Amino acid sequence: MAPSKIPFLLALAVAVLLLAVAFPQCAGRCSNTQYKKACLTFCNKCCAKCLCVPPGTYGNKGACPCYNNWKTKEGGPKCP
Questions:
Q1: What pLDDT score was predicted for residue 11?
Q2: Would you give the DSSP letter of residue 61?
Q3: pTM of this structure
Q4: CA distances from 4 to 1, 17, 37, 45 (A)
């Protein structure tokens, strides 16, 4: 296998792992909101960056420090 293909295959493996394991957690995280599309969009972005999603539908952000500490330009929470 050519060395130039290894980074691509690694990125592909990470993407598959996110889709299979982490992203479904966002469906649970966003299950009680009336803004499901926005919640899922931002939860999936946070999941891709932080590689974790806090348990439950609200709060518990301490379980995932990156998820908790990512803020908007205005200083509010980026992740639902």
A1: 74
A2: G
A3: 0.73
A4: 9, 21, 37, 27
What is the Cα–Cα distance from 17 to 13, expressed in whole angstroms?
A: 6
Decide if 50 contacts 14 (C-beta within 8 A): no
| Contact between residue 61 and residue 67 where contact means Cβ atoms under 8 Å apart | yes
**C-alpha to C-alpha distance for 69 and 52, rounded to whole angstroms:** 13
User: b/e for 26-41, b at 16 or more Cβ within 10 A?
Assistant: beebbeeeeeeeebbe
Q: Is the pLDDT of residue 37 over 90?
A: yes
- What ranges do the domains of the chain cover? 5-69
Residue 30: pLDDT band (50, 70, 90) is: very high
